[in-house]
Amino acid sequence: MSASTDTKPRSGSGKPSGYWTGPTRPYDLLKEGTIALVVVSLLTVMLAALFSSPDDRGLTLQSWAKNAPDDMYATVVAELAGTSGSAGYGAPYNSNSDGQGIGPLALQKWGGVTIKVDPANQFVIDPLSTQPDDATKALVAKWKGASADQQTAWATAYDDALTKAEGDATKVEAGDYGPVPDLAKAEIAMADAGALDSAMVGGGGFYQTNYTRAMLFLGDGAFLEDTAGTQHLQGGQWGMMNSVGNYPGQAWLWLASFWYQIPPFNDENTTIGANADAIVFGAIIAVLSLLLMLVPFIPGLRDIPRLIPLHRLIWRNWYAKHGTGG
What we know:
About 20% of the residues are buried. Helix 2 (about 60-65) crosses helix 3 (about 70-80), helix 2 (about 60-65) packs across helix 8 and helix 6 (about 135-145) crosses helix 8. It is built from 17 helices and no strands. It is mostly helical. It has helices at about 30-50, 60-65, 70-80, 105-110, 120-130, 135-145, 150-165, 180-190, 195-200, 210-220, 225-230, 255-260, 270-275, 275-295, 305, 310-315, 315-320.
């Protein structure tokens, strides 16, 4: 006879048919769960220590001043002269250039100035104005007391002289540079002491979390780019999809990162290379994404799985059993 599936209680037993009548033992679910949690937590910590990517400390303006003071010095001068990358970047920070676009479409300019940035004042003069010593106050007062034309003349002359001296301030020819050299020295001293990092962070309120100015200032020098290069994070090193130290990172970004590895996108001296971001993301990735969404509706493209039946190879066991008919 087959086993009964009746779940009604048997007469006199008080238990449904099929009820387990074999041996039993107590089971502490809370204890088992705790053991599993502890074991998994320990394994997670151990595996993370062995296989995770390095957790390097973030770059700061203080580390910049300590590790590459000459680069920071030249960058401060460039900010005052208006020749830095931030000064001539364009939208969304200022209107000093049209920025990147696609052919006649000035996409960056159309976006407009939404985060107004004045590098000379916000990166140099305003932070130095917070310093309490009389020497720095006198330098700032001399700069602010001069006309805009005089400020530009001082900073431009010193920027040109410093460039001619290949960044070596000790080899700069004598000239009328106003307080510019001393302002640059004062800013490096402020950064070296750790005061510049806090002075450059803004946002208002209790939480000071707006690092825009600090990041732009850091990016105007060579220190950030050089450090990124040693960590395999530059655009030409597939940096968009790498983690620190060339560890595998966001592999799904290969399609975007790929274009920066080939000409003309990786040559900033060409028109296409100078507008690579706008072209890659505003055109190529947009078109490829659109094609992906429209695959079911595009004749020929939608037929590729039928014309190249890789799915039959993957499901070969099923097709061997059921045949290849419709």
